[in-house]
Amino acid sequence: MDQSHRIVFNLLEAMQCLPRPAFDDACRRLATELAADLTEENRLMRDINYVPAVVHQAAHNSLLAEIDRAQCLLAIGDETGSREIIRSLPEWVEAHINTMDLALAIAVTRTK
């Protein structure tokens, strides 16, 4: 998980100063990266029968919805709105990692 988190943080940081259309491309890459990462986390939760999986997956779905919203805003020409969403994500992702992902990591180590 740590490697994929690093990739997401690096991409979010790089996106802050990207001009269009590079920003649009990075937004698509972010969506792809997060979808793969979150699918893997969801699989891991299923594999260990993680009790809080439903809540954790709902958080993942919320994050993916925000990325989708950012892409939709770009599609209609609202670059400012899209950038505001992207600027808010590092804080959200960090909080998710420090709470939900940490609890998942502990649960995984206990199952080994």
From TrEMBL:
Span of domain Hemerythrin-like? 1-101
Please give the name of this protein.
Hemerythrin-like domain-containing protein
Q: Name one GO molecular function term.
A: metal ion binding
Tell whether Iron is among the UniProt keywords. yes
**Family named by the database record:** Belongs to the hemerythrin family.
Q: Which UniProt keywords apply?
A: Iron, Metal-binding
Keyword Iron present in the record's keywords: the answer is yes
Cross-referenced Pfam families: Hemerythrin
